[in-house]
Amino acid sequence: MAQILSAIGSMGVYLVFLLVVYWCVSPSAGARGLVLLMLSSSLNELAKLWAVAPRPYWTDPSIVPGASVTSFGMPSGHAQNAVVVWGVLAWSLGRRAAWAVAAVMALGIGWSRYALGVHSVGQILAGWGIGLALLAGAMAWTEPLARWWRRWPLQDRLALAVLPSFVLFAVTVLAARNLSDETFPWTWAEAVRRAGGEGPRTSSDAAAAGWGFLAGFLAGLAPRAAPPPLDPAGGWRRGALRVLTGVAAFCLPAAVYLVMVSLASPFAPALFVLSALAGLWTVWGAPKAFERLGLTGGGPVSPRVHPDG
């Protein structure tokens, strides 16, 4: 059960799930979820690089981990993102039952990381706390910020979309560069290798992808201060084709990055740019492609939604 819950709470599962929501179900809920997920995961990576805290099995040989994890432990990303993603869905549905399910999933995913030996109780509590703060902030400030955003001219909205993410990305890169093998005990690296990893991850690549996607996604909202309208998918077949079409486009930037990695060491700024293109495609290119390919349902077009819905 712990393995299943942990897998459900992984970044890849959340990303695909929220893309399906955005493209096929509710652009408003999907936009909220994608923005908050990228913000949460990127801040989590930054916090881990600052805290440089070990995972339980790195310091206690008696713990047999249920997974090999190379990132630092504080705070728990699974716990943090679970609160954010499931909380956004409950917020969008606006029902007590949805909030109950969100609480159960967040608690279960957090517990799974403790059961697998990859997070301490304190790290999980910290993740839940940060996730709750982000969710509460989004619920309180999304609508006022969206109104404030729409008052600016296009060039200013583009700057507001890209610059904050780029600055935080630069801060993350600096935090990663300050780390070295002397920053933490060699026993941590040995524990990671025994579990099948290559040593504690000190790169900023994961955060670069998140900050880049967030910058591109918000930039895609800038021209109209809203995504292009998405009409109903018109059945599961059109919905599935939308998802396949949308996700397939991600293969190009991924392939470019893999080629770059094979030719040289990973280059975080390049990953930021490629991820920004993926975010821009998500919010702007994919809906246009759906229309061109006839992947529309022919029903009434959904209202153009802003990040606040």
* Count of individual helical segments: 13
Strand content: under 5%
Instruction: Please state the structural category.
Output: mainly alpha
* Low-pLDDT segments, ≥5 res: 299-309
Total domain count? 1
Radius of gyration: 20 Å
Average predicted local confidence, pLDDT:
84
> Largest sheet, described in full?
none
Number of strands: 0
The end-to-end distance, rounded to whole angstroms, is 35 Å
Name the helicity range: over 70%
Large-scale geometry: globular
Tell me the quaternary state.
Answer: single chain
Sketch the topology as an H/E string, one letter per element.
HHHHHHHHHHHHH
How would you sum up this structure, described in words?
By secondary structure, the chain is mostly helical. It has one domain. It contains 13 helices and no strands. Helix 3 (27-51) packs antiparallel against helix 10 (205-221) and helix 10 runs parallel beside helix 13.
Summary, kept brief:
This protein has 309 residues and is an all-alpha fold.
Task: Give the topology.
Layout: H1 2-8, H2 11-25, H3 27-51, H4 56-59, H5 77-93, H6 96-115, H7 121-150, H8 154-177, H9 186-194, H10 205-221, H11 236-248, H12 251-263, H13 268-292
Helix pairs in contact: 1-6, 2-3, 2-11, 3-5, 3-8, 3-10, 5-6, 5-7, 6-7, 8-10, 10-13, 12-13
Describe this protein with a few key phrases.
single chain; 309 residues; mainly alpha; 13 helices; disordered C terminus; transmembrane helix; Phosphatidic acid phosphatase type 2/haloperoxidase domain-containing protein
